[in-house]
Structure formats: C-alpha cells, structure tokens
C-alpha cells in the first residue's frame, strides 16, 4: 500500500509559496486536486484558450506524459486546447516560448521534455516514491524552485503574457 503523502505535499506548497508569489502575480492561480494530480496551475486566458504552467505532484502514471513511478513532483507548461492558434504560437513554432524553455532548461541542467503534440507541451518530473518522509518536502520544494529558473531564463512567462494580452 502506498503511503499517504498529503501532509508532505501541503508542506511543500507552503514552503514555496512566498518565493514564487511575486513572479506569478500576473497569472491566474487554480488549485487542482484529484486522484491523478495535486498542485497549482498558473494560467492566462485569451478568449477560450488557456496557457501557462503548473507545479505539483503526479499521483498516477496516466496523469501526465512521462510519468512512470508516482508520486512524482512535476512542473509543466501547457496550452489548451491543443491545435489552437495560441498553441501553434507558443509550442510548435521554431522559436516558440515552449521550445525556448526546453532549450534553456537543457543548457541549465534542469531539462524539460518537449511534448509538442499535446496540451501539456513540456514536462520536468522526478519520482519521489523512494524518498524518505523526512526529506520529502526538501527534495520536492528544491525541485520546484529549480524548475522555476528555466521558466524565467527562457522568457517563458513574458512570452505567455504577451501572447495572451490584447493588442493596444
């Protein structure tokens, strides 16, 4: 039987709340909690399309691309719906925000995996299944803080903001 990690997950979000508060102020925050994922999505909306990123925990293998040993701490970039003009702008174009994120993260040593064919376009994850309870919060929060660096370095947040802001 898998151990209940809900208290560690809550403590992780409490630990990273303050350092990430300012950079995320221009994004709508939404808590997602279900059997597959526990975390927060930070998004911007243009008409009926959402784009942004999420920090959280994949609780099942089928929750996100690449998850094989849950629970896994994850950071991912998304554009919904897949195939929209915003998805093409932010994901599939050659120098798009997501492709810049993937390239910057690889240079920095914190690689995101590109998944350009879906709404979850880039994912970085680490299994915590074997991490002892005593260091779970430290490992998870450090992972998420490191994942924020490529988002910033690649200009991902600014590009999403620009793409979802009305001209003029």
Mind sketching the topology for me?
Blueprint (H helix, E strand, L loop, with lengths): L5 H12 L10 E6 L3 E10 L2 E10 L13 E9 L4 H8 L4 H12 L4 E2 L5 E8 L5 H21 L2 H8 L5
Antiparallel strand pairs: 1-2, 2-3, 3-4, 4-6, 5-6
Helix pairs in contact: 1-4, 3-4, 3-5
Low-confidence stretches: none
Major sheet: arrangement of strands: 1-2-3-4-6-5
H/E series, N to C? HEEEEHHEEHH
> How many structural domains?
1
Mean pLDDT: 92
Radius of gyration, in Å, reads 15 Å
Supply the helix-strand structural class. Answer: alpha+beta
Strand content: 25-35%
Gap from first CA to last CA: 56 Å
Helix % is 25-40%
Describe this structure in words.
This protein is of the alpha+beta class. It has one domain (about 5-160). Helices cover about 35% and strands about 25% of the residues. It is built from 5 helices and 6 strands. Strand 5 and strand 6 (about 120-125) form a beta hairpin. The chain is globular. The model has no long low-confidence stretch (mean pLDDT about 90).
Keyword list:
168 residues; globular; 6 strands; 5 helices; alpha+beta; six-stranded antiparallel sheet
Short description:
The chain has helices spanning 6-17, 85-92, 97-108, 133-153, 156-163; strands at residues 28-33, 37-46, 49-58, 72-80, 113-114, 120-127. By secondary structure, it is of the alpha+beta class.
């Amino acid at each position: 039987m898998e151990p209940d990690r809900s208290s560690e997950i809550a403590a992780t979000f409490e630990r990273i709340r303050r350092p990430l508060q300012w950079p995320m102020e221009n994004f709508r925050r939404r808590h997602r909690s279900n059997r597959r994922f526990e975390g927060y999505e930070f998004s911007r909306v243009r008409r009926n399309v959402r784009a942004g990123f999420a920090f959280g925990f994949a609780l099942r293998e089928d929750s996100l691309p690449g998850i094989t040993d849950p629970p896994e701490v994850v950071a991912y970039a998304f554009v919904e719906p897949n195939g929209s003009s915003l998805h093409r702008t932010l994901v599939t174009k050659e120098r798009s925000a997501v492709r810049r994120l993937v390239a910057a993260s690889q240079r920095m040593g914190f690689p995101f995996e590109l998944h350009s064919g879906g709404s979850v376009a880039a994912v970085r994850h680490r299994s915590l299944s074997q991490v002892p309870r005593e260091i779970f919060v430290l490992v998870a929060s450090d992972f998420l803080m490191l994942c924020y660096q490529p988002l910033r370095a690649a200009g991902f947040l600014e590009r999403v903001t620009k793409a979802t802001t009305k001209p003029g």
